[in-house]
Design brief:
This is Translation initiation factor IF-2. This protein is of the alpha/beta class. About 35% of the residues lie in helices and about 25% in strands. The strands form five sheets. The protein has a six-stranded mixed β-sheet. A hairpin with a 3-residue loop joins strand 9 (about 255-265) and strand 10. It binds guanosine-5'-diphosphate.
Amino acid sequence: EYASPHELAELMGLTAKEIIQKCFSMGKFVTINQRLDRETIELIGLEFGFEAEFISEIEATTTEEQFDNEEDMQIRPPVVTIMGHVDHGKTSLLDYIRRSNVVAGESGGITQHIGAYEVEVERGRHITFLDTPGHEAFTAMRARGAQVTDIVILVVAADDSVMPQTIEAINHSKAAGVPIVVALNKIDKPEANVEKIKTQLSEAGVMVEDWGGECQCQEISAKKGLNIKELMDKVLTEAEIRELKGNFSREIPASGIIVESELDKGKGVVSTVLVQRGFLKVGDPFVAGNTMGKVRALMDERGKRIPEAGPSRPVRVLGFEDLPQSGDVLTVMESDRDARDLAQKRQIIKREHEFRRSTRVKLDSIARQIKEGLKKELSVIIKADTDGSIQALADGLMKIHNEEVKVQIIHQGVGQITETDVLLAAASDAIIIGFRVRPNVNAKRLAEKEDLDVRFYSVIYHVLEDVEKALEGMLSPEL
Ligand code: GDP
C-alpha cells in the first residue's frame, strides 16, 4: 500500500487532478484516495521530475541497534515502576521517596511532577523512578515498543488482599520479563496480615524469597516511611543481580525515551526524557517520533539546569518543535538538517496512516454545508492525551477566524474516546478529534453505527489545517 493521488499531489506541490490526469494518460483510471502501486508512483514521479523514495517505517525509525563497545558499558541505575491495586499505596510510596530522597538527613525536595525522577539511595547508588504508577502507562509504553522499566515494585496492602489489579500487574510484569520486588504495605495497620498476602501471592505465581521463591519482599509503611530504605536496598540488589549496564561513551549520539511532555506557556514544549544511551547535551539536534528539535536546555527533577545527562537519567528537555508522544524514541542526529529530514519522512508516513484511518465523510459534508451557507458553526469534541495537548489544540482552534463560521468546542477531556463522547457528538452534530488517543471498543462500534466522524491526529498543525479547510468549505475533494 502506497500513497494516493491526493497525498502524492501534496508531496510534489501539485493538484490531485494533475496526478489523476497523468495516470489517465498512462492508461490508469484512479480515484483521488485510491492507493497507487509502487510502479505507478515511480512513473508519476519521473513524469514530474521527482525521484520516488520508499521509506518503510522500520527504516525511518533510525535507532540502528547500535553497536556498543564493551569498554563503554558501565553499571547504570535501575529504572523502576511501581504497580499494584488501587488504594494499596503506590502514590504514597512514590511521594514518600520523592520527598525524602531516602538518603539520610537529606531532603529530596522534588516538588515537580515530571514523569520520572532519580534518587540517591546511598552515595553513588541511584534509582530512577517512573512517576506514573500502575500498569496502564507501563503497558502503553511497551505497546509502542519502549521497554524502559527494569524492575517493578509490586505494592500490596497487607490489610487487604491480592486484588484484580495486583494480578494484572503481575501478568504485565511477567509478560515484559521484568522482575518484581514485592512491597507489603500498610504494616502499621493492626489488621495487616503478611502471611495471608504471601499465600495469595504464591497462588498468583509470585513466590517470595523467605518462602523459597525468587521474589524479594519487604514489609513497609509508605505513609509512615517505614523500611523504605530496606526496600530500596532490595531493589538495588535486584539490579546488581541483573548487571544493568548502559553505554556511557561521550562519542556516540545519545538516545532516550520520551516519558511525558507538556506545553508550557513560556517555555514551549517541555518533555521528560529518560536517557538510555550516551550523553544528551545542550545543543544536540534530535528527532523524537515525528517531531524534531535542538536541545535548548536540560533540567533535572529539581528544576536545576544541567549541561548533559547520561544513561538512566531522567531530564527535562527544552527545544522540541512539537509535542512528542510518550514512548517515542529520541535520537541525537549529526545535524539540524538530518534531524529535519528524518522528522519529515516520519511525518509523511504518519499522515499516510492517519489518512487511511480517518473517515472523511462527515467533515466533508460539513464543509459542503458550510460552503452552501447551511451551517454557521463547527462543533468539535476534543479528546487528547494530555491537558497540554488540549490547551494547545483549543488555543489553535480559537485562533481560526472566519467571517461566517465559528468553531465551538463543546466538550474536551484527557483520555480515550468513550461512548459518551460519541453520543454527545451524535446529539450535537459534532466531530470528534482524537489527539493521540483512540476510541474504546464500544465507542468505535457506536461511531460506525452513527456514521460519525472521528478523526485521529498526532500533529496539532494537521488538526488546524483540516478544520480550517472545513470552515472554508474546501475540504470536499476537488474533483
Ligand atoms: P494508590 O491508589 O495505590 O496510589 O494508593 P494511595 O497511595 O493513594 O493510598 C491509598 C490510601 O492508603 C491513602 O489514604 C493513603 O494515605 C493510605 N496509605 C498508603 N500507604 C499507607 C500505609 O503505609 N499505612 C496506612 N495506614 N495507610 C496508607
